[in-house]
Amino acid sequence: MIDLALIKKHLRLDSSFDDGSEDDFLLSLAEAALKLAEQITGTCFIAREETLVLDGFPAGSTLIELEWTPVQNITLVEYTDAQGISQELDVATLRLDARKRVYPVLLPPFGQSWPRTIAEPESVTITAEVGFDILPATVRSAALLIIGHLYENREASTAVNVGELPMGVFMLLNHYYIPRIG
Q1: Which residues pair with 107 in a beta bridge?
Q2: pLDDT at residue 116 is higher than 90
Q3: Are 118 and 54 in contact (CB under 8 A)?
Q4: How is residue 8 annotated by DSSP?
Q5: Are 62 and 107 in contact (CB under 8 A)?
Q6: Is residue 20 pLDDT above 90, yes or no?
Q7: Which of 7, 53, 57, 99 is most buried when burial is the number of CB atoms within 10 A of its CB?
Q8: Contact (CB, 8 A) for 96 and 127
Q9: What is the CATH number of domain 4-44+135-176?
Q10: CA 95 from chain center: how many Å?
């Protein structure tokens, strides 16, 4: 995430007045800023584990488009086979295509297709490690701008028109923006 000392430096919090009482608040602003950056761009910045649940493997298609980018690793693929028995695929044999595209895709091993599943909802679960290990500098800068905005404007409404987020936020995040419909 973002280092607390960097947040304090960005906000120009004088150490003579800083007793640490706002540390939890500042860290919550950092988390909110990164989540907002994810919402704006459609890109995962916070490293975490995510799960995709499907109603079966795709029929007539070999690829599964994942809902997150970047995907670092597929950790688990579980499914309920046609006989109703829980199975696990060997993730080492699966192919993750994370080349520059909107979202990565998962494919079965070369020359194979996805196994048949029971005709029931939620019969396939894919778990992946997503996000960045090291936050890109432009994203960190955008998050610091958001943190500064939220720190200075702590109320939902004020007597003064606060306006929207600083324009620089969108300029810094533009490289990671994924156009979405719906």
Answers
A1: 95
A2: yes
A3: no
A4: H
A5: yes
A6: no
A7: 7
A8: no
A9: 1.10.3230
A10: 21
- Residue 71: strand pairing partners: 130
Helix (H, G, I), strand (E, B) or coil at 96: strand
Q: pTM (2 decimals)?
A: 0.84
Number of Cβ within a 10 Å radius of residue 33: 27
Domain layout of the chain by residue ranges: 4-44+135-176, 48-130
- What does the alpha-carbon distance between residue 41 and residue 75 come to, in Å, rounded to a whole number? 25
Angle (CA) 37-43-44 rounded to 5° is 85
d(CA 44, CA 19): 33
CA–CA–CA angle 99, 105, 110 (5° rounding): 95
Whole-number pLDDT of residue 87:
97
Query: Contact 78/117 with Cβ under 8 angstroms?
Result: no
User: What does the block give as tokens for 81?
Assistant: 């086979």
Task: State the DSSP H helix or E strand holding residue 113, giving kind and residue range, or none if neither.
Answer: none
